[in-house]
Amino acid sequence: METVRVFFVKEGRLKYISHLDVTRCLSRVFNRCGLPIWYTQGYNPHPYLTFALPLPLGVDSRCESFDFRLTDATDYQTVQDRLNAALPEDLRVLRAAAPVYGPEAICWADYRLTFRDGDTAVAEQLQRFLAEPHLPVIKKTKKGEQQVDLKEKMTVLRVESSPQKTVLDVRLPAGGTLNWSPMLVTGAFCERLGREPYWTGLERIAILTEDFSPFC
Predict the structure, then answer these.
(1) Do 148 and 211 contact (CB within 8 A), yes or no?
(2) Which of 66, 130, 181, 183 lies 20 to 30 Å from 169, alpha-carbon distance?
(3) Gyration radius (Cα) of the chain, Å
């Protein structure tokens, strides 16, 4: 039995389907892709399937991954080709490989926030927003609501403005110990701006370990 890690893209219309819907979709794909999938034992056999880090609804990503198991050794290119042949549009395998890290190694995720900027007001307000010494926001948890300061853990990687758009890349805590959604950043900025700007994209661009190595 072999564990395979699949790296995939989730974008377009599929960014609006839930994590559970993606799981169901992949279960159907496994049934028709022709790979020697390993199924759990018992009264309700199903494919072994684990995701590295759930993706927030409405967020595109080119760095998602899941693990599954094969009963027989299969080369990784065959795994990629057969899955892509059965997957719907906007869900696409980039590569398959042997896992290097366990999901518990995930500590950070990078996000790209892109919005159309018809004038300089949004870009200027964004610069003022990022320059604030504290950015308190309310984070919802299973135990209720908790106030956190974005400035304590958020790293600004890039800010780039043009007449057509403004792009902000940020690094946020991710994983089982501490997980911040990019919606905390967008929500706080919209509150400061007093309105919601025209967003053209919200994308997860990297999942990283504690020392900022790519999760693989």
Answers:
(1) no
(2) 66
(3) 19
| The domain boundary residue, chosen from 99, 124, 144 | 99
Residue 119 has pLDDT above 60, yes or no: no
Summarised one tens digit per residue, pLDDT across range 33-79 is: 999 999 888 788 888 899 999 999 999 999 999 999 999 999 999 99
How many domains does the chain divide into?
A: 2
Residues linked to residue 158 through DSSP beta bridges, in sequence order: 169
Looking at 81, 99, 117, the residue that finishes a domain is 99
Which residues form the domain of 151?
Answer: 105-209
Which CATH number do you get for residue 59? 3.30.70.580
Model confidence band, residue 207 (pLDDT cutoffs 50, 70, 90): very high
**Which residues in 15-47 are b (16+ Cβ under 10 Å) and which e?**
bebeeeebeebbeebbeebebebbeeeeeeeeb
Quickly list H helices, the chain: 19-32, 76-86, 121-131, 150-153, 183-193
Confirm whether pTM is higher than 0.90: yes
